Amino acid sequence: MGGLTGDPDFRATTFVVVDFETTTPAGHPAQPIEVAALALRLHDGTWQERGRSTSLIRPPAFAPVTPADTAQTGLSAEQLAHAPTPDQALGALDRRLTSGTPYLLVAQHAATEANVIHHQAQHCPALARTNLIDTIPLAKHLIPGLPNYKLDTLLAHYGIPQPPNRHRAPDDVDVTAKLFLHLIAAADRDPRLDSLAALFKTAGRTAKANQPVQAGLFDT
Which terminus, N or C, of the chain has the lesser number of Cβ atoms within 10 Å? Predict the structure, then answer.
């Protein structure tokens, strides 16, 4: 193991790769219609899967599935009509986070997942307090010079096959997890990324629930 994976804080952390598919209603934040999560933990030098979760999510009436959404994801309004509600689906995922266990979420373009979670925080308060690692700045640090850092470009760089159902949350989580493990292997050889703290400084994103609230100008 290198400096990063030899760090006790890194070894104690469970990394939860997460992905949402959403609708984007005008005048409202993106609304989740599918979520998938895959928990990974390094143990004795080997990555182990510690849990997996996936669920369709019924969108609210103001955020119906559009033809563009169906073209992107393959999900239709009929498929989601009787899916779990956000409180059911995200509440179930939230309850899988064990109190006292250090977690970091992992996502491609983590701002997207962070915003969805933040706006659903009432249904998943533990998830909303969990900070994130973004694979994009990590890849930019480790693989400079790529034409872009989209997921498909990074998959091609590492020779990771495209999943059968790209733009469905379970398949995107699987390939993002594979990408993350490739990036961690590269980070392990980088002396600048010798600890979890260094990894977070390079590619971390603080959950909005953990950010300090700026006092109002005239607060006393």
Answer: C
